Amino acid sequence: MDTLYGGIEAGGTKFVCVVASGPDHILAQERFPTTNPAETISRTIRFFQPFVESQQVKSVGIAAFGPVDLDKRSKTFGYITTTPKPGWEQADLLGTIQRALKVPCGFDTDVNAAAFGEYYWIPENRDLDPLLYITVGTGIGVGGIVNGQTLHGLIHPEAGHMFIPHDRTVDPFPGVCPFHEDCLEGLASGPSMAKRWGQPAETLPDDHPGWDLEAKYIGFLISNLILNFSPKRVVLGGGVPQHAGFIPKVRKLVQMQLNGYIQSPKVMDTIDELIVPPALGSQAGVMGAIALARTAVE
Amino acid sequence: MDTLYGGIEAGGTKFVCVVASGPDHILAQERFPTTNPAETISRTIRFFQPFVESQQVKSVGIAAFGPVDLDKRSKTFGYITTTPKPGWEQADLLGTIQRALKVPCGFDTDVNAAAFGEYYWIPENRDLDPLLYITVGTGIGVGGIVNGQTLHGLIHPEAGHMFIPHDRTVDPFPGVCPFHEDCLEGLASGPSMAKRWGQPAETLPDDHPGWDLEAKYIGFLISNLILNFSPKRVVLGGGVPQHAGFIPKVRKLVQMQLNGYIQSPKVMDTIDELIVPPALGSQAGVMGAIALARTAVE
Question: In chain B, which residue's Cα lies nearest the Cα of A150?
């Protein structure tokens, strides 16, 4: 029997808990809304407790919404830090789980975990370092694998808030980011689309001009990521990009924006191999958590 | 006696060759203009030949202008690739030197080498990974150390060409980049300043509005790099940023642009420790080449 691990995708709206050996073998799974930390973390612990007590699960990985403290030398390592989400500021997510379950725990951001999931479980991706994972939904997040490890630093990347060109003669919408107004997240998150067009993004018809504008902004994000990291793979996840025809549109715009400057066949010709939807679909994050759990005991 | 290494800063306008054990001990040094590849590379080889023949120098590091091929599995590894510089397209820089000198050679881009130089030789920087090195001069380049190694990928980063906000009501200048017109390099390189203001950047008086505009664009570059990499150190090199008062101006603009979103004391309070001039001054590149030579035989 394959060894089993625990994986937690700790999102701002819902938690997903799984017991699995990998993407092809999920033994148990539960998802529940993210309420206050006490209730949500208790429910998470209760889910894993029997598997840990029976010694079926020997380690757990946590893919957390953020910002989080990833510095192992810090007193608040594993905490959610400055979130506006009520009750979660300075919540000790990792410590509370680790003290209750008493097993080794891996910990990273949700988007770094998703990048790690795609890198770890999809054999062809093992040769594609740097690999970046983007999610476009309620917010815009970017995680990545660079030189074999996830991207950490002073804190962790927040590339969803990048400053990009905003031509107000074409798009007079001022943006919705409370910090930067018209940064990328301010112009291209799900909520910004909903506010600009007066209806939820997913209800916009295929030929609505909002999709071209959105593709242009996500194109700027990816063009800038290509210029920054020279990635071998860019995985475009989250709800918004899964709209029919959206990813092909983004690929064309990236080629137009870079305009022949990056002379790599993967950019010039086979860009459909460079910019791809997640091979693990919506499981990228939680399977990244399972991979974190595996590496926590390897 | 300390072991000696060869270092080559192969720039687009000049080559710098040194024999040194490190920044504090340079035995020999020569600089000459970059002409055609045959002449320039021969002169480089002639400089090192006696040191190699006497076995004083056992390895050489090359910090090259680009774009270059950094893929060790490629047939054109170590070549300059698609440069507009006459004669240098597809020039075999590394191979020609290695065949003549018959010693192990390290090879990287000039900006990755400069990042590596700052990281390798400055003890406090060893704890500051990710470390990024920016040069602003004839062009704008960015190199970096992430997870202990320089940044490679599909090719190598070209973050100087990032797409950033360009408010034409404030700055109607269209930009000079032949590929992207108003990308960062198009708006903020030395030549773009000269063209916008009708005089070379270094002749603009301290209170000229061009310095505020330039600081805003370099601020967007660094803000975006902080959002992308979460670096622990950003070294701001090249000619333009060394103008009196420029780096403090950039630090303030980065704080204004990020607007409290990155809640790290290094961004909020001690940004003068985050954004710094090169500790190695104009030697960062060639000392990076010496570090590459050392690691080529370690």
Answer: B147
